[in-house]
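hiii so um. not sure if this is the right channel but i have a protein structure encoded as tokens and i wanna go backwards to a sequence. like what aa goes where. can anyone help
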């Protein structure tokens, strides 16, 4: 074989690039096909399901990325679901701060928040208490249920 070393290594480095580009072009064609078949309704989740039935296995996030690069967006949007019930009969805490969060005295104004964290298909609740003077966390608690005893009192 009369090929220079430089030519061989150039070919060797780029042989996989062509295969990846071909696979990407095939994926884009199939995404465009299914998107068109759905009258531009399907998003990355449904298109991933269609592609899996064809034997093309890609993650939903990768399909969403490719769709974004192609400029494909579903004409349907998920409806906003209201999850807060403001007309309840439970007691509401007094608004002592009245949006005045500025303070220089340590320990004078504390605020807290609860964050939901999913661990092994189970919700856990992280309660944090922050001092507004130096914005440092002065207490926290992680619990498996959202009771006062296991969240706020432990923090």
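sure thing!! here u go:
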């Amino acid at each position: 074989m009369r090929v220079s070393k430089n030519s061989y290594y150039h070919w060797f480095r780029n042989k996989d690039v062509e295969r990846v580009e071909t696979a990407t072009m095939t994926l884009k064609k199939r995404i465009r096909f299914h998107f068109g078949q759905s009258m531009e309704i399907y998003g990355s989740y449904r298109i991933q399901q269609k592609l899996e039935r064809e034997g093309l296995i890609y993650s939903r996030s990768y399909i969403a990325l490719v769709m974004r690069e192609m400029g494909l967006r579903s004409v349907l949007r998920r409806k906003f679901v209201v999850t807060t019930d403001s007309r309840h009969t439970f007691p509401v805490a007094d608004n002592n701060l009245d949006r005045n969060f500025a303070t220089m005295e340590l320990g004078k104004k504390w605020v807290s928040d609860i964050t939901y964290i999913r661990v092994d298909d189970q919700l856990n609740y992280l309660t944090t208490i922050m001092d507004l003077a130096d914005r440092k966390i002065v207490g926290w608690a992680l619990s498996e249920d959202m009771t006062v005893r296991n969240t706020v009192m432990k923090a």
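oh and The mean pLDDT is 88.
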